[in-house]
Design goal:
about 325 residues; alpha+beta; Thrombin, subunit H; six-stranded antiparallel β-barrel; six-stranded antiparallel barrel; globular
């Protein structure tokens, strides 16, 4: 029995170099991937304790996570390279966690709206999140933990794919770019329940952004009654639009009965506060009643109009509230 002949030193050195070359090559490729994507990632100063990130969707248009925009004014962006510019809020959609900002466009090397979208994602694929820290790239590497079908958020937004990302996402990188190993855009990373990292897919962004640019929001149907505070003048007319002035009063028995709040100006108490639901309509035909789940399933897909007659704000003038068309 003879022993195996060990490779000569030059051959062994070549094998070691080959083994070391693969991780080094992967590292260099990831660094190049981050550097390329970071050219279209900005820091978003939305009024929170720390900035978040956003992507240059089109020249002059930035998309970010809606939950990171705390205020509607006094917004700013830090562009790649560190130049800070003012921005305005074009609109937002909490149901898909997308906000759109406008700024004075400067030539950008790449806009994500024109890059390929990642479509054939499976569990185990690489996912690289890129954010911006005052113009410098921030990156984290993860994998796709779950790749499922379309789903609806708790607020009713249609999300084109359920993508859960196993990554430790820095808070400053939320709303930035999430790209695959070949550089195609997966979407934007956001925090879900229990700080899980979810991806808002690029297909959802492409569908929602034009509507937000046009209308400033996405109309969603809802079943219920929406309430808002109404300033009341001293004469008791609820139609007054000016701010309340003068001495503030504590709520009394009549104020509580009318749904008034402490500090409101005195006015004639409302004798009744009632809501009476009217009929549901789908186009020109009435929709039959049913349980709550049946109504929800119907209103998710139909353009409906449920109105409610209410006398809560002014007994002499009926107003309408309730389910609005989701157009």
């Amino acid at each position: 029995m003879t022993d195996a002949v060990p490779p000569n030193p030059p051959q062994r050195q070549s094998q070691l170099q080959s083994q070391l070359q693969s991780p080094l090559q992967l590292s260099n490729e990831l660094a190049a991937l981050v550097a390329a994507a970071a050219q279209s990632v900005v820091a978003v100063h939305g009024g929170g304790r720390r900035p978040s990130s956003g992507i240059i969707w089109q020249p002059g248009i930035v998309v970010t996570a809606e939950e990171t925009i705390v205020r509607d004014a006094d917004l700013a962006l830090t562009l790649p390279g560190g130049n800070q510019v003012p921005a305005t809020l074009a609109g937002r959609d909490p149901s898909t966690d997308i906000a759109v900002l406008r700024y004075e466009a400067t030539p950008a090397p790449k806009a994500f709206a024109t890059t390929p979208f990642a479509t054939d994602l499976r569990a185990g694929h690489f996912a690289v999140a890129i954010g911006s820290a005052e113009g410098e790239a921030v990156a984290t590497l993860g994998i796709v933990a779950l790749a499922g079908g379309a789903w609806r958020s708790r607020l009713g937004g249609q999300i084109d794919a359920r993508l859960v990302i196993d990554a430790r996402l820095p808070t400053i990188a939320e709303g930035g770019a999430l790209v695959s190993a070949d550089g195609s855009l997966i979407g934007i990373p956001v925090f879900g329940p229990r700080r899980r990292v979810l991806a808002i897919p690029a297909a959802t962004i492409a569908r929602v952004v034009p509507i937000i640019e046009d209308r400033g929001h996405i109309r969603r149907g809802y079943l219920g009654v929406g309430l808002q505070r109404v300033p009341l003048a001293a004469g008791g007319d609820a139609r007054s639009s000016g701010p309340s002035q003068g001495r503030r009063h504590s709520p009394g028995r009549h104020h509580r009965a009318a749904g008034r709040l402490g500090g409101d100006r005195p006015a004639q108490p409302l004798p009744t506060a009632r809501v009476r639901c009217g009929g549901e309509k789908n186009g020109s035909r009435s929709h039959p009643g049913g349980g709550t789940q049946d109504r929800r399933r119907h209103h998710r897909t139909a353009s409906t109009g449920l109105t409610c007659d209410t006398a809560a704000t002014n007994p002499r003038r009926a107003s309408h509230c309730g389910l609005r068309p989701s157009r």
